[in-house]
User: Which sequence fits this backbone?
């Protein structure tokens, strides 16, 4: 399967067109809002804007909906442990997902994710638990999947990513300050 895999991702929970238009073009978008019912009409409209702007757009936790709408792929969060995602046979459809532990990495491998978002790398605002550099390196060596660093990324610690064997990185708040 020859599907493009972006190196930089942003998580959003609002479909704000102006915010997205102002992001750098190489940043892929993951729409993740577990508190709201999906507004299909708005999602389709937003997908068109992303396509027009040559931006990759992924939906979190709804693989059937993402495939049905012709999105670039789906993001499977760590809490989603369903293995039967094999019904997704679309060409150029990327399955990505997050993990925090070795058992979760194994689940993501069974879910056929191409990239594993390993998190949290650094201290975040939401939790005082984080992997740190050494544990992150150990966990990332447990899989052959591409690794995306996630969690606690700030401008003052981005240079530490260079010492990790990662494919890319993702953030929720890093891009908000620009």
Assistant:
């Amino acid at each position: 399967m020859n599907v493009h895999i972006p190196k930089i991702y942003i998580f959003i929970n609002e479909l704000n067109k102006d915010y997205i238009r102002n992001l750098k073009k190489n940043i892929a978008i993951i729409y993740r809002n577990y508190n709201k019912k999906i507004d299909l009409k708005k999602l389709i409209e937003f997908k068109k804007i992303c396509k027009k702007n040559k931006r990759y757009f992924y939906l979190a936790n709804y693989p059937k909906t993402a495939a049905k709408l012709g999105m670039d792929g789906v993001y499977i969060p760590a809490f989603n442990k369903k293995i039967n995602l094999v019904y997704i046979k679309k060409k150029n459809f990327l399955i990505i997902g997050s993990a925090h532990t070795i058992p979760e990495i194994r689940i993501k491998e069974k879910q056929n994710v191409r990239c594993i978002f390993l998190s949290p790398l650094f201290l975040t605002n939401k939790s005082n638990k984080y992997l740190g550099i050494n544990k992150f390196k150990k966990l990332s060596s447990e899989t052959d999947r591409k690794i995306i660093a996630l969690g606690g990324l700030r401008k003052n610690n981005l240079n530490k990513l260079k010492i990790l064997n990662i494919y890319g990185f993702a953030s929720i708040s890093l891009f908000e300050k620009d």
